[in-house]
Amino acid sequence: MEIRKRPMQTAKFVVLFLIWSAKTKSSVTVKMLNSYKVVTKQKGVRIMRQYHETEKKEIQKLAKMYREFLDAGKTERECSSNICRIAKEQGFENLEDVIREGKQLKAGDKIYAENMKKSVIMMEIGTDDIENGMLLIGSHIDSPRLDIKQNPLYENGGMAYLDTHYYGGIKKYQWVASPMAIHGVIVKTDGTTVQINIGEKPEDPVVGVTDILVHLSAKQMEKKGSVVVEGEALDLLVGSQPMDKKEDEKEENPVKAYVLQLLKEQYGIEEKDFVSAELEVVPAGEARDFGLDRSMIMAYGQDDRVCAYPSYKAIEAVTEAEYTSVCLLVDKEEIGSVGATGMHSRFFENTVAEVMNACGTYSELLVRRALKNSCMLSSDVSAGFDPNYPEVMEKNNCAFLGHGLTFNKYTGSRGKSGSNDANPEYIARLRRVMDEQNVSFQTAELGKVDVGGGGTIAYILAAYDMNVIDSGVAVLNMHAPWEIASKVDIYEAYKGYQAFLTNL
Question: At residue 124, what are phi and psi to the nearest 5 degrees?
């Protein structure tokens, strides 16, 4: 938590001290002033919490499980599938089974619902009626990446490429000259689903986007960063070997033909099957400990799986809660939360209606009351302060790595455009809970007022008239192929989300 002198009190102290020192000519004057200068130079720096050995072990254990979670789910499909599997193991029932069997839900029951294999809702029924409100934690499980187009494969210059379309807000130049993996599914016309995961095993080949060598890049280096690499230049190099053929055979695109031959042999798919495919290009490689002190984690997709992980872990730990606990893990946040699997869909509202019906308390009015009376943490990342780029942050109102769970009263950009502005009464309740449960937290904005900003799913849930505030983990390299987060912040987020679900 932040410890800071109030400006007026500090100024008054300095004036009185200077008057006193001038009269007394104290020998300690210089030493005390030097000490004060040190404090002022460090304005905005938080006092880090000290952890005992048991907590340090818990932090490292949670971080290890989190790295495994990231490696198992580099796409929203993989993430959703993994969470559903874990939910079953933890005793959560599939809502579809509950509906089909006509089962009556009661306090203590745990259920989950999956939407098109890309979004998940986990719920534990509380002892109080759902109409009196729920406690929600909402994260997203999609991340910026490159998507392979529907007609992608072509040959040029004796090399085979897959045409891509980038997804979400990225710096395109960051996605070149690095090893990439292909994850996703190809669904054939007979309904067969082929799982694709190429580039993650040590023995797997990797693919990638090429870049101009520095010796020939004079014109490229003169361009603005946004167009150093054009979107249509983010094509994936996947092969250079031509298909073996007899002398009397002619093949216009032998390298492309060989790639298709390999796909046929290894996966049983043909070129036309790309039309019904969902293939994502992501950085190849495992999540790693970062820093010589192993205090951080570097990995792809931490926006927003670094918040999704403690969110679902928190609801796993909930038992005998008064209010119904909900964990929302949704898709499409990086492109505006649109579509059937984004937060703008009716998936959450419909799920609440089905659960209330299974509890024997459904009506349209009661569903509306339940949503209005609920409280939510929009669990999404915040931009961590980077000392290499201090000019974009206002240090008194930004998030620092290693200083705990971050609360953003509002997100949006510039004049709060697109923000959810949490009310102070709700924030006060959260402060009380976090203090009582010894959760380290900080408050922040996403950069200086006129510099930029960003949004979350908060405003969408706030439309139901419920209390919502953004809270999450600060990261460095946000939206880059490899993002950095603090293990301490992940731990405090986990504790904070538990505190919210059990003590609000």
Answer: -120, 125
Predicted TM-score of the model (pTM):
0.88
| 145-283: CATH class | mainly beta
Mention every residue, 6+ apart, whose C-beta is less than 8 A from residue 17.
Answer: 32
pLDDT for the residue numbered 50: 79
Q: Which residues of the chain have pLDDT under 50?
A: 1-15, 17-48
**Residue whose C-alpha is closest to residue 43's, from 335, 281, 371, 390:** 390
In angstroms, the CA 475 to CA 384 distance is 5
Q: Give the pLDDT confidence score for residue 49 in this predicted structure.
A: 60
Strand partners, 472: 406
Q: What is the pLDDT of residues 23-55, one digit of tens each?
A: 444 443 333 333 332 233 233 334 446 789 999
Please determine, looking at this structure, whether the domain spanning 53-143+300-503 carries the CATH number 3.40.630.10: yes
User: Among 25, 60, 46, 32, which Cα is nearest to 294's?
Assistant: 60
Instruction: Report domain extents, the chain.
Output: 7-41, 53-143+300-503, 145-283
Query: Given this model, what pLDDT does residue 236 score?
Result: 98
Q: Which amino acid is at 401?
A: L
* Per-residue buried b or exposed e for 223-239, using 16+ beta carbons within 10 Å of the residue's own CB: eeeeebbeeeebbbebb
